[in-house]
């Protein structure tokens, strides 16, 4: 273990504190805006600390169920939860056996298949939106959860497959041989051997997939048009679409929208770090 001098330790901690401030300052300012009045937000010079702290914006979003803002926000929250969780579960259901087969089963075409999967993930959304929109329109799926879930699965499956495959590669293949000799099939090996060992990678893949689906805006904007399927990014953008934007309401919606993914990231932070790191070194 390398011992650091007091100067080096001070530099490391100072850099960490500075990085934390840089990351937290925008969130802190968003929260200050959410509890500020319109007068405080439009006063020049800018009032960094509001004169009158009010949580009226939060009440209008989650407390006043008769208001249009609350209806739009709560429906969007429901839609985001349904779409993000469903797309994540379906993507992992496909990615786990796909990643295992790419990692374990023999064949010279595995690398090319993985490259094709990553290439589809790297394509810009605007290149795919026209055929996807035409397909969803012909199937009558526009403005539905199914449309967004299907599109998000097409984005998430290549990413989660690549992430899980790199972690499965780090698991010794010898662990698969004994169950095969005893008569176990591949699905049993995946369920009882591979996944328990790769649990951190599975948690990291699930968290990244949820975050990607939760924050996606482009497809959700084009494929939805009312509260039946609009997700939170689109609903928040709608709050700023009028002639006069209520920045306090928009900020409150942004703070509330971060609570579910931040809560999930907090409980899965160990899985995220170990899952992303374990695939970088083969054991």
UniProtKB/TrEMBL annotation:
One of its GO terms (biological process) is transmembrane transport. The chain crosses the membrane at residues 12-32, 81-100, 112-133, 145-164, 189-214, 247-268. Keywords: Cell membrane, Membrane, Sugar transport, Transmembrane, Transmembrane helix, Transport. Residues 77-268 form the ABC transmembrane type-1 domain. Pfam families: BPD_transp_1. Its main location: membrane. GO terms for cellular component: plasma membrane. InterPro entries: BP-dep_ABC_trans_perm, MetI-like, MetI-like_sf. Belongs to the binding-protein-dependent transport system permease family. MalFG subfamily. This is Maltose/maltodextrin transport system permease protein MalG.
């Amino acid at each position: 273990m390398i011992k650091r001098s007091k100067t080096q330790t001070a530099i490391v901690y100072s850099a960490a504190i500075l990085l934390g401030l840089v990351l937290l300052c925008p969130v802190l300012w968003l929260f200050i805006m959410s509890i500020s009045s319109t007068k405080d937000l439009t006063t020049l010079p800018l009032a960094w600390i509001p004169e009158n702290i009010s949580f009226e914006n939060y009440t209008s979003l989650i407390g006043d169920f008769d208001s249009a803002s609350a209806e739009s926000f709560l429906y969007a929250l429901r839609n985001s939860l349904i779409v993000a969780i469903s797309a994540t579960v379906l993507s992992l259901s496909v990615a786990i056996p796909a990643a295992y087969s790419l990692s374990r089963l023999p064949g010279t075409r595995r690398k090319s298949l993985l490259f094709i999967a990553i290439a589809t993930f790297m394509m810009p959304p605007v290149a795919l939106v026209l055929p996807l929109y035409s397909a969803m329109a012909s199937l009558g799926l526009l403005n539905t959860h199914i449309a967004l879930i299907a599109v998000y699965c097409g984005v998430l499956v290549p990413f989660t497959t690549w992430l899980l495959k790199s972690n499965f590669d780090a698991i010794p293949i010898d662990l698969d041989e004994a169950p095969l000799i005893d008569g176990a099939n591949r699905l049993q090996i995946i369920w009882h051997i591979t996944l328990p060992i790769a649990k951190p990678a599975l948690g990291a893949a699930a968290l990244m997939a949820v975050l990607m689906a939760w924050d996606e805006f482009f497809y959700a904007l084009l494929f939805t048009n009312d509260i039946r399927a609009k997700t939170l990014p689109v609903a928040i953008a709608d709050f700023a679409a009028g002639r006069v934007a209520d920045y306090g309401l928009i900020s409150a919606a942004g703070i509330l929208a971060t609570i579910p993914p931040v809560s999930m990231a907090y409980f899965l932070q160990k899985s995220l770090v170990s899952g992303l790191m374990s695939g970088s070194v083969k054991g």
